[in-house]
Amino acid sequence: MTDPITPPLKAAIIPVTPLQQNCTLLWCTRTNKAALSDPGGDLHKLKAAVEQTGVELEKIILTHGHIDHCGQASVLAEELGVPIEGPHEADRFWIERLEEDGARYGVPGKPFESDRWLNDGDRVTVGDLVFSVHHCPGHTPGHVVFFNEASKLAIVGDVLFKGSIGRTDFPRGNHQDLIDAITTKLWPLGNDVHFVPGHGPMSTFGAERATNPHVGDAALGRG
């Protein structure tokens, strides 16, 4: 029986790369199995975090194909012998150009083939934890969000930030798609959901609906 004091999911945010991207170490407290979301770089930091927490890394999960989120994912996967799950296959073109983009941004990048491309409605497991997959295009066409309903926690990548939203001026970005994804895929998950963005501090969907100048209810004329 699970100790009621110990939450089923624990998470640690580890900012990586010069772009300070939020890589998150997620683990199941019952099984001690873990995943790293968006390990874009600074692999020494990530391996140290895995070692310090004493968890068993079983996979890497990716929200999208940008260099700061997945530039070093395949290197880490090969070193630790774990699979990569995500993002949606529509981001394959971003992953194919990781080396080129890495040279541009000063972040080493290595293209790869995901072990499992994800689609809307898929489920990703980490130990006993289950994350639902929500395809949220706009920032990139293949961006996905991971949501653990039991813990009311979402890993949203660069879809949504505290007080802001993702850029849509990259190739195959689409502003209206992003707005639609946030309002039709994320808001229905609940105002009490805490989310880890790709950069910056955490927030809740309810706080962003109340105050976000881009997708808040008032900004969209829904207040």
Walkthrough of the structure:
This protein is of the alpha+beta class and 223 residues long. 25% of the residues lie in helices and 27% in strands. The chain has helices spanning 43-53, 67-70, 73-80, 92-96, 98-105, 175-186, 205-211; strands at residues 9-16, 21-28, 33-37, 56-61, 84-85, 123-126, 129-135, 144-148, 153-157, 160-161, 164-165, 194-197, 203-204. The strands form three sheets. Strands 6-7-8-9-12-13 form a six-stranded mixed beta sheet. The chain starts with 8 loop residues before the first strand and ends in a 12-residue tail after the last helix.
Q: How many H/I helical runs?
A: 7
User: Which H/E pattern describes the elements?
Assistant: EEEHEHHEHHEEEEEEHEEH
Strand order of the largest sheet: 6-7-8-9-12-13
Helix share bin: 10-25%
Radius of gyration: 16 Å
* Distance linking N and C termini: 44 Å
Q: What does the overall shape look like?
A: globular
